[in-house]
Specification:
By secondary structure, the chain is an alpha+beta fold. It is built from 14 helices and eight strands.
Length: 501
C-alpha cells in the first residue's frame, strides 16, 4: 500500500532535482541569477519534506493505535490514546531513516545558506539528498508496522532525532572541507587518483566477491503479493554442516543479467588505468598531460553504460520466471553451485512470494544507489578536469570554508555524544545492558573518536586548513559506514541490521 506521505516525499524529490539542475546551470554558466530560484526550490522541497514526515508520523500513529486497541480489546480515549498515537515516530526502518536523514541535511544546509550565502553547498546538499531519497524509494520494506518491543521507547525519538541532526551536520561539514581542499590547491589529478581507486573498490563491492573480470552480474528476483506489495524472493532449505547436522539456509534468489557486469568490468579497468596515469603524471610533474583525464572520462562513460544496462534489465521485462518448475530448477541449481548439493531431486525448500518472479528496479537497490553515486562523482571529476579553474574561482574564501566546517563540526559533535548516550540508555531499557559492543555501538564510538581527534588537534595543536579538512572528509566516510554499512550487515550480524531490501 502506498501511503500519502510517500507521495509527498516524491514531490520533495522533484523539488530537489530541479534545484540541482539550476545549481548546475549556475556553476556551468556562471549565471548567478538562478541562485534565488534554486534556493527557493530547496526551501519548497524542505517544506513538503517536513509535511511528509508529519503525515508519516500520523499514519504510523494510527497503525500503532489500531494494533494496540485490537490487542487490548477496547478503544482508548484521552491521554492514553494520544500517548499511543505519538509513540510511533516516522523513522523506525531503513526507508524512514533515509528520508529523515535527508531532511536533516536540508535543514542544516538552509540554515547555513541564510547565514553565509554559500550557494555551491546547495548543489552538493541537494544532490546527496536526491541519492538518499532515491535509494529509499527502491526499498521493498516501506510498510508501516506496529513497533516491536525493543522499539517501544521514547528514547527512540531522541536517539534517532539526534542521529539525523548530527549525521546531517557531519555531511555538510565534509562538503565544506572538500571545497576547502579544492580551494587550497589540491589539484583535480590528486582527486582523480583517489576517486579512481575508490571507484574500483566500490565496483568490486558491487560484484560481491565475483571476479569482476568475468563480467558476471546477478540481480535478485522479486514478486508481488495480492495487495501489490513487492518483496524479494528468498529460498529456504536445509544444507549439511561439517559436524553432520543440517542447517537452514535462507538466501536470495538471483538471475544473471546481460551486459551490466561486462560494462562494470570495463569501467573498473579504465579507472584503474586512470589511477596509474594520474600517479605517473604526479611523479613526473606533467601538469598539462591529459592521459588520466581521458581514461577517467572513458571509465565514466562505461559506468553510465552499466547503469543504463542495469535499468534496461530491471524495466525491460525480459527476465521472468512464470512457473513453479522454473523456480524449482533455479533453487536446485543454486543449491548445487553454492553448497555442493548435487542431484537435488529430494531437496526440500520453500520460496517466498509467488510466481511470476521478475527482475525489477527494487531487485538490487543498494547496487543501483552505488552506481548512481559513482556516476555523479565521476561526472563531477570530469567537469573538474576541464573546468577546474573556473569552478575553484567561484568557491568562497578558504578562511570561510575552513571556519564553517569547524563550526558545523562543533555543533555536530555534541549530537554524536548524545547519540551514544541516548542509545546506551535505550539499550538498557530494551535489552538490559548499557553497552554490548554491538557493531553499531563499536562504530559509533570509532566515529566519536575520529571527530574528537579532529577537535582536539584543531583546538590544542592548531591543526587548521588542509589537515583538518582531510580528517573531516575521512570522518564522514566513517559516518556513512556506521550509518549504512553496519545496517546492511557488512560487519556481520548485530541488533542494528535492518537493511534487507
Amino acid at each position: 500500500m502506498t501511503h500519502f506521505s510517500e507521495k509527498l516525499f516524491l514531490v520533495a524529490f522533484f523539488h530537489y532535482l530541479a534545484a540541482v539542475v539550476l545549481y548546475m546551470i549556475m556553476v556551468a554558466t556562471a549565471k548567478h541569477g538562478v541562485r534565488k530560484l534554486a534556493v527557493g526550490l530547496s526551501i519548497g522541497g524542505t517544506v513538503v519534506h517536513t509535511l511528509g514526515l508529519l503525515v508519516r508520523y500520523i499514519e504510523a500513529g494510527l497503525v500503532e493505535l489500531q494494533a494496540f486497541e485490537q490487542a487490548e480489546g477496547h478503544a482508548l480515549a484521552g491521554w492514553e490514546r494520544w500517548k499511543v498515537l505519538l509513540s510511533h515516530p516516522p523513522f523506525t526502518n531503513l526507508y524512514e531513516s533515509l528520508v529523515f536523514f535527508a531532511w536533516g541535511v536540508m535543514v542544516i544546509y538552509l540554515v547555513l545558506e541564510f547565514r553565509y550565502k554559500l550557494s555551491l553547498v546547495g548543489l552538493f546538499a541537494n544532490a546527496l539528498v536526491l541519492l538518499a531519497l532515491g535509494l529509499s524509494s527502491l526499498l521493498t520494506d516501506r510498510e508501516i508496522t506496529p513497533l516491536v518491543p525493543a522499539l517501544q521507547s521514547w528514547w527512540l525519538h531522541m536517539h534517532v532525532a539526534m542521529a539525523a541532526t548530527g549525521y546531517g551536520a557531519f555531511l555538510v561539514a565534509a562538503v565544506f572541507s572538500f571545497m576547502f581542499l579544492l580551494k587550497d590547491g589540491v589539484g583535480h589529478r590528486r582527486i582523480g587518483l583517489a576517486l579512481s581507486l575508490v571507484s574500483v573498490l566500490m565496483l568490486l563491492g558491487v560484484a560481491r566477491g565475483t571476479p569482476i573480470l568475468s563480467g558476471d552480474y546477478s540481480m535478485t528476483l522479486v514478486s508481488k503479493n495480492a495487495h501489490g506489495k513487492t518483496s524479494l524472493a528468498f529460498a529456504e532449505f536445509e544444507v549439511p554442516a561439517r559436524d553432520g547436522r543440517r542447517l537452514t539456509a535462507d538466501v536470495e534468489l538471483k538471475r544473471r543479467v546481460p551486459h551490466t557486469g561486462a560494462l562494470m568490468s570495463l569501467s573498473a579497468f579504465a579507472f584503474l588505468l586512470a589511477a596509474a596515469a594520474y600517479a605517473v603524471q604526479g611523479r613526473k610533474g606533467k601538469e598539462h598531460g591529459r592521459a588520466g583525464d581521458w581514461l577517467f572520462t572513458a571509465g565514466t562513460v562505461m559506468l553510465a553504460g552499466a547503469l543504463a544496462s542495469f535499468v534496461a534489465n530491471a524495466t525491460g521485462g525480459g527476465i521472468r520466471i512464470s512457473s513453479e518448475e522454473e523456480i524449482s530448477s533455479l533453487v536446485k541449481s543454486f543449491a548445487a553451485d553454492r553448497f555442493g548439493m548435487a542431484g537435488g531431486e529430494s531437496l526440500n525448500f520453500r520460496v517466498s512470494g509467488a510466481v511470476p518472479y521478475v527482475v525489477g528496479m527494487r531487485s538490487n537497490p543498494y547496487d543501483f544507489a552505488i552506481l548512481v553515486f559513482l556516476l555523479a562523482v565521476a561526472a563531477f571529476q570530469v567537469f573538474l578536469a576541464f573546468r577546474h579553474e573556473s569552478f575553484v574561482t567561484a568557491l568562497p574564501e578558504k578562511r570561510v570554508l575552513d571556519n564553517t566546517a569547524y563550526r558545523v563540526t562543533l555543533f555536530a559533535f555534541p549530537m554524536m555524544t548524545l547519540i551514544i548516550v541516548t542509545g546506551a540508555v535505550w539499550a538498557h531499557y530494551a535489552w538490559g545492558r548499557y553497552w554490548g559492543w554491538d557493531p553499531k555501538e563499536t562504530w559509533s564510538l570509532i566515529t566519536w573518536f575520529v571527530y574528537a581527534f579532529y577537535l582536539h588537534a584543531r583546538i590544542t595543536h592548531g591543526w587548521t586548513g588542509r589537515p583538518a579538512a582531510v580528517i573531516s572528509v575521512i570522518g564522514f566516510a566513517v559516518v556513512i559506514f556506521t550509518y549504512l554499512g553496519v545496517n546492511l550487515g557488512l560487519t556481520g550480524g548485530g541488533l542494528h541490521v535492518y537493511g534487507k531490501g
